[in-house]
């Protein structure tokens, strides 16, 4: 078995000057590889290969580069410490923030991609590209100056955002295609801003459909092998007709660069979210108030089910729509409004797609008997992600849910504390999924510290893991709490296969 690399969002965070330097370095430092002298009889002739030049010429004017500026204040170093550092010969650049940066704000920029969907100036991108930005600007390929953009709305659950610019003339816009028609093996073309190299075109195929790369995200991603890298986030993936069938969002890579495994939000998932953002600036989602568990073959056998399908309820939140509707722990939800449910993710996605206030009929197996339970959905609370541990999602160790060293981690918020029966002041990071773990970790275990440093968010765990890697260590020491017990466990910084 092989180890699982980290899933990373495909945005790049660095100043524009640094991008220019990187671009020059790449262009001057890479040797060109000569083509083979002869083509074997088994290879396709050049005339048989498709050309996407006409398509690319048609769509690229509507693909843009997005710069999101963030104000960051450097730490204030006491005057005594500054004098001591200078006494030992350390230059001002060694102080936090560098020369002149002590305690003063500086600007950091995140670069991403986007595309125009309306001639009046509406632009789609990923939420993680513009998250927390103080200023957003858009660069069009046929213009010299960047154009300021307003954030119309953003949705953390789908990782989508909608921007608006005020153009002097109608813009060229792109049309969405039907992502449900895309099959593994179909051609796709990605356009975006990898590493700040705007207007980059790559081609490949759909590698797979329905990929689940993040427990906190409802998207069933398209997997593509067209190269996407940091900076491609929010850019479009086209079908062979030039229609947008996906929005590039993440890559699966041990290094942070493309290894041919990229993920795009399907257009059919994105369209209703974008429409709601355009209309109201936010997205309302239905809410049950349950924690769900997969129906494994063993569970299915114990319940007398022919197939391991459906979602078993392992907890019902107090005073939630589920409790008011009569759902119980141990119920196996097999359908919603007559539509069969494959797994817990399928149920969560269907519930989230229904407006709050509407009543749904759930087909439930309870005590070996099939019953129908009607539940009036509530509205998902702010920060709620999957009727369980909530928080924003980011597959690079940042955010409230993340994958770190093979573990899926979640922030320990008030809802999670209540569900797990923890004290209101309990601190730590909850393990959502231990993955291929050999330490005996379980979902619901709490990581209280890493290398004797207290942790409060997945990003804290990720920081300690990355520090250990830089120090050449093979593992970090976790203090794990389970109920009234606690134990120290060594977690490998590189997950084992």
Structure description:
InterPro entries: PDZ (IPR001478), PDZ_sf (IPR036034), Pept_S1C_Do (IPR011782), Peptidase_S1_PA (IPR009003), Peptidase_S1C (IPR001940). There is one protein chain. Helices cover 18% and strands 34% of the residues. It is of the alpha+beta class and 497 residues long. Strand 12 and strand 13 form a beta hairpin. It is globular. The N terminus is likely disordered.
**Poorly predicted parts:** 1-6, 14-43, 383-400
What name is given to the CATH topology of the domain at 179-280?
Thrombin, subunit H
Radius of gyration: 25 Å
Going by CATH, the homologous superfamily of the domain at 179-280 would be: Trypsin-like serine proteases
How much strand? 25-35%
Q: N-to-C terminal Cα separation, in Å?
A: 5 Å
Q: What's the pLDDT, averaged over the residues?
A: 78
Care to count the β-strands?
Answer: 29
Summarize, please.
The chain has 497 residues and is α+β, with helices and mostly antiparallel strands. Among the domains are: 179-280, Thrombin, subunit H, CATH 2.40.10; 287-379, Roll (Pdz3 Domain); 402-492, Pdz3 Domain, CATH 2.30.42.60. The protein contains ten helices and 29 strands.
């Amino acid at each position: 078995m092989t180890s699982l690399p980290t899933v990373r969002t495909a945005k790049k965070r660095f100043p524009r000057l640094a991008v220019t330097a990187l671009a020059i370095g790449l262009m001057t430092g890479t040797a060109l590889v000569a083509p083979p002298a002869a083509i074997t009889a088994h290879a396709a002739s050049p005339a048989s290969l498709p050309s996407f030049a006409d398509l690319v010429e048609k769509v690229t004017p509507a693909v843009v580069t997005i710069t999101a500026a963030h104000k960051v204040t450097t730490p204030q170093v006491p005057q005594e410490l500054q004098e001591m550092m200078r006494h030992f010969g350390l230059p001002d650049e060694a102080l936090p923030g560098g020369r002149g940066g002590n305690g003063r704000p500086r600007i950091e920029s995140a670069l991403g991609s986007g595309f125009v969907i309306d001639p009046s100036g509406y632009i789609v991108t990923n939420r993680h590209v513009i998250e927390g930005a103080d200023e957003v600007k858009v660069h069009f390929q046929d213009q010299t100056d960047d154009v300021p953009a307003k954030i119309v709305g953003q949705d953390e659950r789908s990782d989508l955002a909608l921007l608006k610019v005020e153009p002097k003339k109608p813009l060229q816009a792109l049309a969405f295609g039907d992502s449900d028609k895309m099959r593994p093996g179909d051609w796709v073309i990605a356009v975006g801003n990898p590493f700040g190299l705007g207007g980059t075109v790559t081609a490949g195929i759909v590698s797979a459909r329905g990929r689940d790369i993040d427990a906190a995200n409802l998207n069933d991603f398209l997997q593509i092998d067209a190269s996407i890298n940091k900076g491609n986030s929010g850019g479009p993936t086209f079908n062979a007709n030039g229609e947008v069938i996906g929005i590039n969002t993440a890559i699966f890579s041990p290094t942070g660069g493309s290894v041919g495994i990229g993920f795009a939000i399907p257009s059919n998932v994105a369209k209703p979210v974008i429409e709601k953002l355009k209309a109201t600036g936010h997205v309302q989602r239905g809410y049950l108030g349950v924690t769900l568990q997969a129906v494994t073959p063993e569970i299915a056998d114990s319940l007398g089910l022919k197939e391991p399908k459906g979602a078993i309820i392992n907890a019902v939140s107090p005073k939630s729509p589920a409790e008011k509707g009569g759902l119980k722990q141990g119920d196996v939800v097999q359908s919603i409004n007559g539509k069969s449910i494959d797994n817990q993710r399928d149920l969560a996605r269907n519930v989230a797609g229904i407006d709050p206030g509407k009543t749904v009929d759930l087909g439930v197996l309870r005590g070996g008997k099939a019953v129908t339970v009607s539940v009036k959905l509530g509205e998902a609370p702010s920060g709620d992600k999957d009727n369980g541990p909530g928080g924003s999602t980011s597959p690079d160790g940042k955010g409230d849910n993340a994958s770190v060293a093979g573990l899926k981690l979640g922030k320990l918020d008030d809802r999670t504390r209540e569900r797990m029966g923890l004290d209101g002041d309990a601190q730590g990071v909850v393990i959502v999924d231990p993955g291929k773990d050999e330490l005996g970790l379980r979902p619901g275990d709490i990581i209280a510290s890493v290398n004797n440093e207290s942790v409060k968010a997945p990003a804290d765990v990720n920081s300690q893991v990355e520090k250990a890697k830089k120090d050449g260590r093979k593992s970090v020491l976790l203090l794990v709490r389970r109920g009234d017990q606690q134990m120290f466990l060594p977690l490998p910084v590189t997950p084992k296969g």
